[in-house]
Amino acid sequence: MPTPTVPAKRPAPDAQEKAWVADEDRFVLQQAKRKAAIRVKAGRAEAIDWLVVTLTAVDPERNLVSDVFGEEQAEVELRNPEDVLEDLTDRQLQELEKDIEAYVALEQSKSNLEYWATMKTICQERRKQSSRNLPSARGVSSVSADLDKLLGSKNLDELGKLEMQIHTKLASDKAIDTDYWEHLLSSLLVHKAKARLRNVSQGIMHVKMGGLRRQQCENAFTLRARFEGKLSSTHMTFSEKILGHDSISQSDHPRHPLDPEPFLRLALDDKQLPSVEEQDFLENVTSERLRVLKTGFLSKRKLSTSAQPPLKRARADDDFEPAGSSATSFDREVARGVGENEEVLNTEESVATKNLQSWSGKYRPRKPKHFNRVQTGYEWNKYNQTHYDHDNPPPKVIQGYKFNIFYPDLIDKTRAPTYKIEREGGRRRGQSFVPAGQEDTCLIRFVAGPPYEDIAFKIVDKEWDYSAKRERGFRSSFDNGILQLHFQFKKIYYRK
């Protein structure tokens, strides 16, 4: 480490120059944050802009963007930083990493520097996964899956203690598996960055909850004052009527305008509302709360269209559906959430739609809505029975999929949408081109016709189980504008 060459007491011109440079960096940083906030408000935000605006929620200098959003600042959507990186390509991740380095060079706050270092670590990890062409939901091997299981449940303090233990073990003279411990250390640093990011997300949620509570209290006090004023005015008017008409009997007094309607007599509007049992209502509320917690962010109030990101604006336009369509079906499917052994599959693969030019001039092409689930579970084969038990289960593997694709505005309703499997390099079913310990993947493409473009997803390439038994649950149907394809993979049993 080089020793400092600057004397303890700097000359006045040098100290003044250093202060000028610091002020200039601070000004450049503030302007960069304001520009990011402006792009978010205008719907032109890039990944770095979302990270900047999200950081302002926990930044002690978050008032830097208040002049941009004004009263709408508390209603601006704060995206989970990990969700921002979810669908970025390798090139976009590389550009984002350069943008992060620019902020690191200007940032002076210690907490903000930790935030940017965390985002840079996660960017680098996602680039590694992209270069290996391995989805983040699948480990490269059973060892990686075991490490993810070991580290994923630990908090930041526990990961810090484990990191010190690993450094101590690597520095010792004992005979150890160096490759394993170094691999464990690199995985630990990634999980440590994710743990910091979870803390940031929780801090953002607490800040937003505090702001919403204050806003709700202000609205409540405003309505209370308005109600009390109206009640006082109504009461005085009624008293004057009584004093001015002493000869009027009690039965002739008009009923107080604020008296509630009789409880046993339902209004016409109330009779048309759907009824629900108390138990069903409580289960609905519980599932909605779990869904909100799993989403990881607080929903904002609906802003103007110009304040929404371009992707969401496009989806809002493309997903316009007339009354009586399957919009309620999509909302109902989303409200169901995911089960204990399910995960959401929303990553689309880029595919070209055949014959798009023949009808794109007449109809506006759009991607269909979808809500898909990945079914996971344990495989108790001979190896797993030997090395694992129910207290220490093996890594989960993908056992099936549930696709729900929505086509409410299909032009030719006499032709049902179809699906087909596409394998790379002319590979046939049953052939494997990947090393041992990894799984082949393929594309499943859904084709419908105008006005919908083709949509495709990457799935594990295994043999399907077409059994319609309840525990297997194969389903392929198209009804009310919804294409449902549910299937599980065949279980392979080896004879002794």
TrEMBL record:
Q: Which organism is it from?
A: Polychaeton citri CBS 116435
Q: Which Pfam families match?
A: Cactin_mid (PF10312), CactinC_cactus (PF09732)
Any Gene Ontology biological process: mRNA cis splicing, via spliceosome
Q: Which family does it belong to?
A: Belongs to the CACTIN family.
Residue ranges constituting the Splicing factor Cactin C-terminal domain according to the UniProt record: 359-496
Highest taxon, organism lineage: Eukaryota
Region described as Disordered: spans on this chain: 303-329
Q: Where is the Splicing factor cactin central domain?
A: 13-200
Cellular component terms (Gene Ontology): cytoplasm; spliceosomal complex
**Record protein name field:** Splicing factor Cactin
